[in-house]
UniProtKB/TrEMBL annotation:
UniProt name for this protein: PAS/PAC sensor protein
Keyword Phosphoprotein: yes
Claim: Hydrolase is one of the keywords in the record: yes
Species annotation: Rhodoferax ferrireducens
GO molecular function terms listed in the Swiss-Prot or TrEMBL record: phosphatase activity
GO BP of this protein: phosphorelay signal transduction system
InterPro entries documented for this protein: Bact_Sigma-Reg (IPR052016), CheY-like_superfamily (IPR011006), HATPase_C_sf (IPR036890), HATPase_dom (IPR003594), PAC (IPR001610), PAS (IPR000014), PAS-assoc_C (IPR000700), PAS-like_dom_sf (IPR035965)
Gene3D superfamilies xrefs: 3.40.50.2300, Histidine kinase-like ATPase, C-terminal domain (3.30.565.10), PAS domain (3.30.450.20), PPM-type phosphatase domain (3.60.40.10)
Family matches, as SUPFAM superfamilies: CheY-like, PP2C-like, PYP-like sensor domain (PAS domain)
Domain PAS: 305-348
Upper taxonomic lineage: Bacteria, Pseudomonadati, Pseudomonadota, Betaproteobacteria, Burkholderiales
Length: 820
């Protein structure tokens, strides 16, 4: 801190330390401020630069610092603080969702006192802050007391005469005693050797220091004083410490004609220790020679050992090597390890191995070999080159451990884990994610969710109030994994029970408002969430087609994005409420926003907007809005817009997968059908299908084409179905599927002149180089499939309707105009 100030321990009861919280998420700032303000003065900053300014002006006792922030991240803030002398000593707590060891080490290397992973307990955080502040205050007090002590010592230091200078300049430890061996003077080396000050030593008996012969027998001070040569032995201090010294005593006469003694001591601990190490090394060498034979026998029992010459020819194998490979020694000696080479590894693998050992470096890795009977076995290998005096390899020693059984167990464990995650994900899809109603009039809906750890705490559900009114509940529970998923399931169940109870109380005469529902849910679950130290962000959106309104409540969730049809304006509908589970006294307020035909809504979790690129660039709202505007401009189906968003997000994160749970729901308000206008006119509005990219689901495309072309000839319908089926088959078989569970979207539209079938999928568009010629080989790859497509319809277009999306558009002209 800039100006350390000492406090008595009793002052802490009235003193309120300052804590600076730096985080770009307003909800985190609010939660931490409310949780800490009872004990501390809390100041907050929404960015790294603002945090540095407040640190200079406020001089806080502790800084709570988020790692992942746009612009200047937490690491950069910590580094800048360390470069400013008056701020370098402020204790820093890193608060982050990062859990990897590398991120934690980086934070601690920058001087952080702690690295807490979200979610964390507020009680534990407060206790750690209190401990750090108390330790820091004690350190400041100690520094000031040391300064006072040094000043006192300097004041008491006077000039020394020449004799004292010579006395203190000696390289030996010098001790002067009277004839009764009472210490009267010592030099600085004696103070260091005896680890006591002159004040502590003078006027004390030298006899309190015990001396021993090297054999451990006692050596009296009187005997030392009577000897005229150096004596080596062990000096034992009163506190039980000992060290090896050489000691010499000289007697002298004082001015008062009294006998005195001058003892010279030399510390020989290093020399004695080196001698002991030399003797110990001799013993260890002898023991090593004895153990070498035992170790070789043990290695032969456990490890596969082989030695090859510089050309790679085997010159030695042990019995374990032969037993595992199935070859006899005479079959292996003189040959290279190619005899046991399998086809599992690429040529580059063996090239890198040989390049490493040829350069004189040790190679570590796993190798799968083929035994004599053709079976495969895997070994963990260490290949060590033996080098000559010029550092050039002349032999290679290979030590292998058979890990075949372990690898098989790991594979089975991985499969079991994958099955567990698959089952968990399947259960989650059925419990936490409600399917959109299929009979909603004039509404198109697309959804997706992707957990960061197999199962997560995101959830959503649709409730149809009547054919022209529905609502969507979305939520995100703090944390990840099974615990978050269980809490989410409980909240969703509470929502269902709450709606049922409120409807029952009104006897079906009135529908409860979104605010009434959320406040009722809040009253039930908030006490339980506080008890388990968790919370949930919620968003409840009700769309009423008849009243042309959307009524919504936002409880700390990400803003709902409303995309206007007239100009593509994107509105952020956020609100001011905290998440459910934070404060029991929170009252949730609803808002009403008008909607029109053509408008669209996006409800999403922060796993999308806060996704980070490898360079810590946040995806952000602006990128989401750009995708939404493009989708609105082209009036693409919600599934196409949503998958374009997923593709752009995946490219931004370099396909690393989500670091947080990601969920999104996209809803478009379409015109209501007018039954009086006739079925054929109704067909002029495109009809959409979302099907999995699986061959066994393509029959749905045939059915939809048959419905739209009901009045056309059987040949017309068959040709259009054939072209669509062949194009869809090519997409499923040949287009890379980078996004998990991304559907194939099929649009079937009829005009007075033609029927257009468009197959839209995630990926890059395919452009045939030229008009295909029939191969008649029976394989699509030979051009026959493309020939079928072009021959069955009047026009084929390959397009990219949205970023990251591709489509094949098939148009076939009607043979006759439909009846009006």
């Amino acid at each position: 801190m800039a100006t350390p100030h000492a406090l008595r321990l009793t002052d802490f009861e009235s003193y309120r330390p300052t804590i600076l919280v730096i985080d770009d998420a307003q909800i985190n700032l609010t939660l931490l401020a409310k949780g800490l303000e009872s004990d501390y003065r809390v100041v907050t900053a929404e960015s790294g630069l603002q945090g540095l300014e407040l640190a200079e002006s406020e001089h806080p006792e502790v800084i709570l610092l988020d790692v992942m922030m746009p612009g200047m991240d937490g690491y950069a803030v910590a580094k800048q603080l360390s470069l400013t002398p008056e701020l370098a000593q402020i204790p820093i707590f890193f608060l982050t969702a990062l859990t990897d060891q590398e991120s934690q080490l980086r934070g601690l290397e920058l001087g952080a006192v702690d690295f807490l992973t979200k979610p964390f307990s507020l009680k534990i955080l407060k206790k750690r802050i209190a401990n750090v502040i108390e330790r820091d205050q004690l350190r400041i007090n100690a520094m000031q007391y040391q300064t006072v002590l040094n000043d006192l010592l300097l004041e008491q230091t006077g000039a020394k005469n020449i004799l004292e200078s010579v006395f203190n300049a000696s390289s030996d430890a010098l001790i002067v005693t009277d004839r009764a061996f009472q210490i009267s003077r010592v030099n600085s080396n004696a103070e260091k050797l005896l680890q006591s000050t002159a004040t502590e030593l003078i006027d004390t008996p030298f006899l309190r220091f015990c001396f021993q012969h090297p054999d451990g027998s006692s050596l009296a001070v009187e005997a030392i004083s009577a000897n005229t040569s150096w004596i080596e032995g062990k000096l034992c201090t009163p506190d039980g410490q000992s060290l090896w010294v050489a000691i010499l005593c000289r007697s002298f006469e004082t001015a008062q004609e009294e006998t005195g003694y001058l003892f010279s001591l030399q510390d020989i601990s290093v020399r004695v220790a080196l001698e002991e190490k030399r003797l110990q090394a001799e013993l260890q060498r002898n023991d090593a020679l004895l153990e070498l034979g035992i170790q070789k026998a043990a290695m032969d029992e456990h490890a596969l050992v082989s030695i090859a010459d510089v050309q790679g020819n085997i010159i030695y194998v042990n019995d374990k090597f032969c037993a595992t490979s199935g070859f006899r020694p005479d079959e292996l000696l003189g040959h290279t390890h190619r005899m046991i080479k399998s086809d599992v590894h690429s040529p580059d693998f063996y090239h890198d191995l040989w390049t490493t050992v040829s350069a004189g470096k040790t190679w570590h890795g796993e190798i799968t070999n083929r035994a004599k009977d053709g079976s495969l076995y895997t070994v963990a290998s260490t290949i060590v080159p033996w080098l000559d005096e010029h550092g050039v390899p002349y032999q290679y020693v290979s030590i292998h451990t058979d890990i075949t059984a372990r690898k098989k167990a790991e594979e089975e464990l991985a499969l079991a884990r994958q099955r567990e995650l698959s089952v968990g994900s399947s259960i989650q899809q059925s419990l936490l994610f409600g399917k959109p109603p299929t009979d909603l009039e004039g509404v198109s809906v697309a959804c997706f969710t992707e957990a960061s750890s197999g199962v997560d705490g995101d959830f959503y559900t649709f409730t149809e109030i009547n054919p022209l009114c529905f609502e969507v509940l979305t939520g995100d529970v703090m944390g990840k994994g099974v615990t978050a998923a269980l809490i989410a399931a409980g909240i969703k169940n509470t929502y269902y029970k709450t709606v049922t109870t409120l409807m029952s109380q009104r006897q079906g005469k009135a529908v409860p408002t979104p605010a009434e529902i959320i406040n009722a849910v809040h009253a039930i679950i908030t006490p339980e969430l506080i008890r388990v130290e968790s919370f949930v962000t919620l968003s409840l959106v009700r769309v009423n087609r008849l009243e042309k309104t959307m009524t919504w409540v936002n409880a700390g969730h990400t803003p709902t994005l409303l995309v206007r049809n007239d100009g593509g304006e994107v509105l952020e509908l956020l609100g001011d409420n905290l998440p459910v589970g934070v404060l029991k006294t929170e009252v949730f307020v609803e808002h009403v926003t008008p909607i029109e035909v053509g408008d669209a809504l996006l409800l999403y979790s922060d796993g999308i907007s806060e996704a980070m690129a490898p360079d810590q660039d946040e995806y952000g709202l602006n990128r989401i809005k750009t995708i939404l505007r493009l989708g609105q401009a082209t009036q693409t189906h919600p599934s196409v817009t949503l998958n374009s968003l997923r593709s752009d997000l995946s490219n931004h994160t370099r396909h690393l997968g989500p670091a947080d749970d990601s969920t999104a729901i996209f809803i478009r308000i379409n015109p209501l059908r007018n039954g009086a206008r006739g079925t054929l006119l109704d067909r002029r509005a495109p009809e959409f299908l979302e099907i999995p990219r699986r061959l066994d689901k393509l029959g749905l495309i045939r059915q939809k084409i048959a419905q739209v072309a009901l009045d056309q000839s059987e040949t017309f319908v068959h040709m259009l179905q054939l072209a669509a089926f062949e194009a869809a088959t090519n997409i499923i078989r040949h287009a890379p599927e980078r996004l998990k569970n991304a559907p194939l979207t099929v649009s079937v539209a009829r005009t007075p002149l033609a029927i257009c079938v468009e197959l839209i999928y995630e990926g890059e568009p395919f452009f045939p180089p030229s008009a295909p010629s029939p191969d008649f080989s029976g394989h699509s790859e030979g051009g026959f499939g493309l020939y079928i497509i072009n021959s069955s319809v009047d026009q084929v277009d390959y397009c990219s309707p949205m970023p990251g999306m591709a489509s094949i558009r098939l148009l076939k002209k009607l043979k006759q105009l439909p009846d009006r």
